[in-house]
Amino acid sequence: MSSSQNNHPETIPNQPKHVGIIMDGNGRWAKIRGKRRIFGHEAGVLKARELVETAVKIKLEALTLYAFSSENWSRPKKEVSGLMSLFEKTIEKYTSLLIDNNVRFKTAGDPSTLPDVLKRKLEQMESITSENSGLKLTLAIAYGGQQEIINGIKKLIDDHDNQIIDVNDLTVESFNEYLSFNDLPELDLIIRTSGETRLSNFMLWQSAYSEIHFTETLWPNFEEQEFLEILQTYSLSERRFGNVDEDTELKEA
Ligand code: FPP
Prior knowledge:
The protein is built from 8 helices and 6 strands; from the N terminus they run E-H-H-E-H-E-H-E-H-H-E-E-H-H. By secondary structure, it is α/β, with parallel strands linked by helices. The protein has a single domain, classed as Decaprenyl diphosphate synthase-like (Undecaprenyl pyrophosphate synthetase, 3-Layer(aba) Sandwich), CATH 3.40.1180.10. Helix 2 packs parallel to helix 3 (77-100). The longest helix is centred in the middle third of the chain and has 24 residues, at 77-100. It is globular and about 60 Å long. The N and C termini lie far apart (53 Å). Farnesyl diphosphate is lined by residues 23-28, 37, 41, 44-45, 48, 65, 67-68, 72, 83, 86-87, 90, 194.
């Protein structure tokens, strides 16, 4: 992290606690430049690094990055293997950056589908940073929201069979314990780049009340300034979780 920078953004009042980013548009960014898709993914990694640094600077509590979906396995073999080795290199390259910045790193997804070397490196990074108390950074990798919910239901059925839980006692809060991300603050805001307006299987359970911001910007072009503006807009918006506050009702009466 460059401490020599003067333009340190500051914590924004009422900023979201937990932001999820669907980093989309690497392929198109590369194509515009007449380059291979992996070139775009490499630029995407640099952008992710930049945004993690911003998140640290503004003391964001949690940041979740969607790096590889369960559905991304159906991409051309060459792109998938290129991405896997890029993830490996990224973990190696940025371990010390995360340690120096007190970042706690975790993954969400199905690690059993990942190459062994990558799986080990991710586990190492999780364990090395597990005591850190700063930004909670989660990489959603080989992750799908529907799969996450199904896995949660399987664990719930196990607990039911072992008489650990009475299904009549099941609530939104208690089911949350069977899912990923359950040690993180609520997902306040999702940002998706590149103009696509879908969630694409990202944090389906956790997004029930999230604000969602779609931007046309391709991920490698997504600048700190735009990120901060989106956070500002969020901080000014009123989130009521389906309730009507009393003042509004009086005004409407
Ligand atoms: C979307 O672009 C991006 C991905 C499929 C995942 C890869 C993401 C990165 C390499 C960025 C950060 C990674 C880490 C490890 C923090 P796309 O290929 O879907 O783009 P397109 O829609 O333009 O084809």
